[in-house]
Amino acid sequence: MSRPEPPKTLADWQALAAGLTLESRAFIDDTFVEAASGETFETLNPATGERLARVASCDSPDAELAIGHARAAFDGGVWSRLAPGRRKKVLLRLADLMEANKHELALLDTLDMGKPVNSSLGDMAGAIGCIRYQAECIDKLYGEVAPTGEEALALVLREPLGVVASIVPWNFPLMMTAWKIAPALAAGNSVILKPSEKSPLSALRLAQLAREAGIPRGVFQVLPGFGHTVGKALALSMQVDCLSFTGSTATGKQLMQYAGQSNLKRLYLECGGKSPNLVFADCKDLDRVAQHAAAAIFHNQGEVCIAGSRLLVENSIREVFVEKVLAAAEAMQPGDPLDPQSFMGAIVDATQHRRILDYIRQGVEEGARLRCGGEALEGQGLFIPPTVFDDVTPAMAIGREEVFGPVLAVFGFDSEEEAIAMANDSDYGLAAGLWSQDIDRIMRVTRRLASGQVFVNNWAGGDQTMPFGGVKQSGNGRDKSHHSLEEYSDLKSVWMSLAT
Ligand code: NAD
């Protein structure tokens, strides 16, 4: 049987959207069920305001049920004690199923949170690649024999943790999910996923695919619902061994308290950012750098943890360079998320839309110079155009706080020392970029940037082999690469005395 043609045009994507059947129930044990309370919440398409579905709104009883199944599956060993090579096969099957359904998965994220469909397709490649990478790693990691004397054989074994709850945000719904669940499942844990209440649909479709791939019952479950209900119940549970979180710093702080109030569960946090992008005057192709500097903030409507939201430009080129950024921004206007030509889409919901506009208003009031954008687009849907402020100072809210929208704050500097000090003057430390042709400067500055990731002459470069995460209030976890597998396993030291 021939495969249907992949969607290419706006009309193709609209036709695919019209034919979708949405799963809106929780996935507990091996079954799709309504929340115990029968409660639901609405999920809307932010580009049109249309309701997509009413989704099961889980709470403590659902969390308790799922945790019980996860624990039973873990203790039973159906997955936790399966040979790594066999877990690998199941996860590779899941990746293949995701690949076969990637257009539908991408479409669900686009409809749910407003990002352009081509960008969602890029996320699917990232999500599938992550599952394949972690699956391929797991049967290639060895334990250790410690270098002790002849009196003993000392082994260092790696064991799964138990029940892992993964709480994820809405800005890259399925990709963030894959970054969490792939290493946790590969390592042999039972995983309970709580997607964001703003983007639950792709996670529920993923649950269908996980079942089809043969992940045993209770090993992967999905609980849609709110943070203060089901999220909190998972975080406070005495039966959850690890909480892996991606989301805001404020929620991360709350989760640390919950871990302390309950069982000291292991906690990995991937939180917010206010990432500096440093442009030195010695760059040879300012047009190219300006293009990347604009994309660094306007990609995904600026709803990106590593958005290059603080642009630090050497004053000798600032005027010329900002003009080039403005020209690049002009070509990145938001459009219909289903149109493959759109670079930017809709803002996720009315709350976030209002928050971004409040920051813009505050920027003007605090004296920053608005160079473009600044007003919501009129008409249907939640759209904000690329917005650029120059003459920003570190004291202004748009210069310090995470806006999480298409708002760029431009600062000027006169020396390398001043650039480094400004870059590091932040509560966050998720990512930083630096553009220069001077290798000595590149190495000097890279070493001194307080950041989990540094992009040199690019923005957001990386692949599955590279850890992703931050320092300071951007969190303590690392997603991707084999380092993330270490987070989801424990070391067991075995000292075997030998007769001599
Ligand atoms: P958020 O903190 O509001 O929510 C994230 C998740 O936490 C959601 O699933 C939410 O329901 C849940 N949650 C909220 N309150 C909770 C509570 N009290 N107990 C348990 N769970 C709770 O963040 P958001 O608005 O969904 O996402 C945007 C944030 O995520 C930004 O700050 C962004 O920088 C960050 N982010 C970070 C990374 C990274 O890798 N560092 C990646 C993507 C997004």
Automatic annotation (TrEMBL):
Domain Aldehyde dehydrogenase stretches: 32-494
Catalytic center residues: E270
Keywords: Oxidoreductase
Organism: Halomonas fontilapidosi
EC number: 1.2.1.-, 1.2.1.54
Protein name per Swiss-Prot or TrEMBL: Gamma-glutamyl-gamma-aminobutyraldehyde dehydrogenase/4-guanidinobutyraldehyde dehydrogenase/NAD-dependent aldehyde dehydrogenase
InterPro entries recorded: Ald_DH/histidinol_DH, Ald_DH_C, Ald_DH_CS_CYS, Ald_DH_CS_GLU, Ald_DH_N, Aldehyde_DH_dom
GO MF: gamma-guanidinobutyraldehyde dehydrogenase (NAD+) activity
Source superkingdom: Bacteria
Similarity annotation: Belongs to the aldehyde dehydrogenase family.
Entry annotated with the keyword Oxidoreductase: yes
SUPFAM superfamilies: ALDH-like
Phylogenetic lineage: Bacteria, Pseudomonadati, Pseudomonadota, Gammaproteobacteria, Oceanospirillales
First-tier enzyme category under EC: oxidoreductase
